[in-house]
Amino acid sequence: MPTKIEKIEIEGMQCVGCEDILKQTLDGLTGVERVDASYSAQTVEVVYDNTKTHRADFEQAIIAQGYGIKKARASGGALFVFKRFALFLLLLLVVGGVAFWGKSQMPGVMQLINPQMSYAVLLGIGFLTGFHCIGMCGGFVVAYTDHAKSKARQLLAHVSYAFGKTLSYTVLGAGFGLLGATIAITPQIRGAVALAASVFLLIYGLKMLNVFRFLRRFTLRMPKTVNRAVADELRKPPRSALRTGLLTGLLCNGQQKPDTCLGSVSMKFPLEFERGQIAQC
Question: How confident is the model at residue 214 (pLDDT cuts 50, 70, 90)?
């Protein structure tokens, strides 16, 4: 049987979850024997029978998933790198400026949060923080919602998802809270945890910009067997809203562009650990 190996450079791989997406996509093609995807290298290597399929089929399947095929850059490589670096500096200035401005506003905002605060302020805070949950979980809500069902069944699905997600984060928070309640937290430990979380978020933020290639190797991931089992479970039709909510606590990796999730967890869990309390998302 004639066997051939193709190594394809991919554009648009944002996290390790893209590896699973590409593997599952190409494994389903006739004649494919093995697929190895690498987020850090931004490549896919396919071992296949070239009498049954061809590179063009792989590229078509990859593009159908929303990725691109990297073409050789004949010239202007240095200019391309310079533009990327300039874009990085611009984003750094904009985001840094907004962050410092927001920090300067915090004392005034914190003064509004008190037992006598009005319902209007509470409603405003809840409305603004709701955008975080939309960005983090909106994709899951869209995935399990079945428009063919009645409005009552759809509402029940949303309630089930919310219960499962709350339970998942409560259990995780309880574990870290219990650990924090049994260990004395000194100012030095508190400072070290805050510093480590800040460095983690900074590195992951730079990694998400995809400017510095070496940062792709800085990736936290679950064991591949666990990651694949969770991903496969979520893809099973029909999707269970309750099961999706319960598994949300485990999806701090590539399944939901989890660089964001990992950054959130890095800040949330040390806080739960420090306070020794049960915390919810």
Answer: confident
State the DSSP string of 108-165: HHHHH-STT--HHHHHHHHHHHHHHHHHHHHHHHHHH--TTS-HHHHHHHHHHHHHHH
Q: Are residues 60 and 129 in the same domain?
A: no
To the question of pTM greater than 0.85 for the whole model, the response is: no
Does residue 79 belong to any structural domain of this protein?
no
List, in order, residues 6 or more apart from 167 with CB less than 8 Å away: 245, 246
Q: Quick one: pLDDT band at residue 138, thresholds 50, 70, 90?
A: confident
- Cβ pair 252, 258 in contact under 8 A: yes
Co-location of 127 and 195 in the same domain: yes
Do residues 66 and 52 lie in contact, with contact meaning Cβ atoms separated by under 8 Å?
no
Whether 42 and 70 have beta carbons less than 8 Å apart is answered as yes
**Torsion angle of C-alpha atoms 102, 103, 105, 107, degrees rounded to 10:** 150
- Which DSSP helix (H) or strand (E) runs through 33? strand 32-38
* Res. 235: pLDDT tops 70: no
Q: Is residue 94 part of a domain?
A: no
What pLDDT, in 10s, does the model give residues 47-88?
999 888 889 999 999 999 889 998 765 555 677 778 877 887
List CB contacts of 196: < 8 A, sequence separation 6 or more: 270
CA–CA distance, 26 with 6 (Å, rounded to integer): 12
Among 46, 69, 92, the domain boundary falls at 69
pLDDT at residue 276 greater than cutoff 50: no
Q: In what order do the strands lie in the sheet with 32-38?
A: 32-38, 43-49, 3-11, 68-69
The number of domains in the chain is 2
Q: 62-65 contacts: CB < 8 A, separation 24 or more?
A: 62/8, 62/10, 62/22, 62/25, 62/26, 64/25, 65/21, 65/22, 65/25
Residues 49 and 123 reside in one and the same domain: no
